[in-house]
């Protein structure tokens, strides 16, 4: 099935944003991809510049747009508000529409299926297999995944299995409260790093929330980033079906993966051109956990019985934080913490 | 939520204001739509574009005496000097010192070979001062677009400067598919690259005593890069500002950001402030745009430094409407589109619309058209101020730096007073 990019107000604003580009190249000087590879000429060229030549029934002017990682740093720094990352995202989708999705992207786009296959009791086997040189050589040859690129390790148990086991053991959710949240764990927490989800549940419960483990899909970002819009569209529809009923009862959706929550809020609706009432409802009631806690704090409800932790921790702010109303972790703490900067 | 000092805009006015607030212990949050003026300007500190023998200080005195509504008049000469001094001290600390004075403007060449007056410049540029004699060489690279040594040299020659030009060869290790000013800055951060270029320059130098290069001599330690090249060539080396993105501007942004964040402030780029809330005379909330819901900020004091029309803080449309896109403050602007433009594109007096901005009292607080105070806890700095056309006066960076510093200090005091009364 091919996904036809709609002629919606987003397309119109993308078209108009071309005229806002003053060719200052600030975006190019900030783009992390063009900094490291020559094959990507940078946001200005593949975005507002190449877009002029992307016309119906014309061959695509430049396929290097496929190197764009969708990190949106360019959007963040552009002084005139050109929506470069969205231009790139939709341009890539058109290429995929014409030429199909390469095997590698087809596989890497499905973080959920990969996770399902690799995680669980057999994870050590899968991890060992994926660390073997001959296997990596083959995956490089067949799929184009660089031999030396580190791969995340599958977890021996999934976050969902842990959560359900815990509920079974206790015979009920660990706290019952009229303040409920749906936790959106995303694929990374479920299959690779379940401890992130455990920590989130602990923090939320400590603050008096009952955490609901709703059915959910992959947010669809890996597919969106690879231009596979029709499949991403299916995922988003699935999430709407599964999550909107909670939102309609006044229960917000809170996630720990900023890129998942950003996809539910903005990326999927904007790239796919979805603007109906349910889409907006989910977008408006989805929160990154930092954003959520920050709002709790603003209302004087956050428990601030923090204990000092005498450790230095590395922290890499997710790129998608820039679009979230919390800023990153540092910005969040910074709002009340007197010592940590 | 804690009340904060919020700075709207991350140009030189906003950054200097944030620096003042940081140093007063107010831990400001800087919110900006994107990176802007720092990446556009050449990195010099232009106080006023006087040429000839007139002392800058005297010219400023005249300007202040004759234009009581001019932002410089609201600061007075000693505050102007204080802002410049603080700016220079910060740059000095970051090993990127500025030279110059309020006596005579230096005359520096542009990438087009025009001559441009400026009061202070990074020491990587000062050897380009055209008040000195001696033969010049202008060198560049075919690979660096928008910097044409032959063009710069031809225009300088027409103005009586003895100058030659040359294109340099990139070492094979530096071959890329495409180049930007940043690519070259990365190259020049590497001492081996500097060696290769220095050796070439020595060969083509001839009688030239000074060599001008595009201002891409590194982001890490440009002063060291210039020193290296001087050692290798035996000539004085100077940088000539390029088209954006400006490497000297990026250096400024990096230094400011580091200094502000190290002292407890935050710079958040990609956060467009587009809504404000307040009561009778205080601004209480600002809202910056984010995915699906705005980020709300509680305001103790706020600095509006959104850069006027050029910086995007002041919006205009074809109906003749002019508005402040962040706080929606009343603006001082020519009524109706017919009043916006001068008769000629390059009119001596500039276009009236570019002087549009917020009118303020002498503490840079916003006033409405009747002259009443709008918010007592807001100050305005830089190009968003009414009362001058800094582009036409050649005072953009000087005016933004000094008004930003002054406004930041006033706000720091207001914030301390406010916190004392509310405690
Ligand atoms: S930063 Fe924005 S205005 Fe500048 S070149 Fe990039 S898209 Fe154009
Ligand atoms: S989204 Fe990221 S990778 Fe893509 S062009 Fe923008 S800055 Fe570069």
What is the overall pLDDT average of chain A? Answer: 86
Radius of gyration of chain B: 22 Å
Unreliably modeled segments of chain A: none
The third-level CATH topology of the largest domain in chain A is Glutathione S-transferase Yfyf (Class Pi), Chain A, domain 2
Give the biggest sheet of chain A: 4 strands, parallel
What's the helical proportion of residues of chain A? Answer: 40-55%
The proportion of residues forming helix of chain B, as a percent range, comes to 25-40%
Determine and state the CATH class of the largest domain in chain A: Mainly Alpha
Amount of beta strand of chain A? under 5%
Sheet of most strands of chain B: 7 strands, mixed
Structural class of chain B: alpha/beta
Task: Figure out the total of helices of chain B.
Answer: 12
Query: Which molecules are bound besides the chains?
Result: iron/sulfur cluster
By CATH, the topology of the largest domain in chain B is FAD/NAD(P)-binding domain
Task: Provide the low-confidence segments of chain B as ranges.
Answer: none
Description:
The complex is a heterodimer of chains A (341) and B (423). Chain A has 341 residues and is mostly helical. Chain A has 3 domains: 8-100, Alpha-helical ferredoxin (Fumarate Reductase Iron-sulfur Protein, Chain B, domain 2, Orthogonal Bundle); 104-143, no CATH class; 159-298, Up-down Bundle (Glutathione S-transferase Yfyf (Class Pi), Chain A, domain 2), CATH 1.20.1050. Chain A is built from 19 helices and 4 strands. Chain A has helices at 9-20, 26-30, 32-36, 43-51, 73-77, 84-99, 103-108, 111-118, 123-131, 133-143, 159-170, 186-192, 194-206, 221-225, 229-248, 258-272, 277-284, 289-298, 329-334, and strands at residues 180-184, 210-212, 253-255, 286-288. Chain A is globular, with a radius of gyration of 21 Å. The model of chain A has no long low-confidence stretch (mean pLDDT 86). Chain B folds into 2 domains: 4-95 and 249-422, 3-Layer(bba) Sandwich (FAD/NAD(P)-binding domain), CATH 3.50.50.60; 126-240, Rossmann fold, CATH 3.40.50. Helix content of chain B is 34%, strand content 19%. Chain B has helices spanning 12-23, 37-40, 56-66, 71-93, 149-158, 181-188, 191-204, 222-233, 247-262, 308-311, 390-393, 396-422; strands at residues 4-8, 29-32, 98-100, 106-109, 115-118, 120-122, 136-141, 163-168, 210-214, 236-240, 266-269, 273-278, 283-288, 295-304, 314-316, 322-324, 378-380. In chain B, the strands form 5 sheets. In chain B, strands 1, 2, 11, 12, 13, 14 and 17 form a 7-stranded mixed β-sheet that branches. A 4-stranded parallel β-sheet of chain B has the order 8-7-9-10. A two-stranded antiparallel ribbon of chain B has the order 3-6. The longest helix of chain B has 27 residues, at 396-422. Chain B starts with a strand and ends with a helix. The mean pLDDT of chain B is 94. Chain A binds chain B through residues 24-26, 28-30, 35, 38-39, 41-42, 75-81, 262, 265-266, 283-284, 286, 297-298, 322-327, 330-331, 334-336, 341, and chain B through 1-2, 33-36, 39-40, 176-178, 180-182, 244-245, 250, 261-262, 264, 266, 268-272, 288, 290-296, 298, 311-312. Residues 31, 33, 43, 68-74, 84-85, 88 of chain A line the site of one iron/sulfur cluster.
